[in-house]
Amino acid sequence: MPEIWFYHLQHQPLETVLPSLLEKALEKGWRVVVQASAEERLDALDTTLWTYADGSFLAHGRARDGDPEMQPVYLTTGAENPNGAQLRLLVEGADVPALFADGSCDAYERLILLFDGADEDQLTGARAQWKTLKEQGRTLAYWQQGERGGWEKKA
Question: Of 93, 137, 124, nearest to 4 (Cα)?
Answer without folding.
Answer: 137
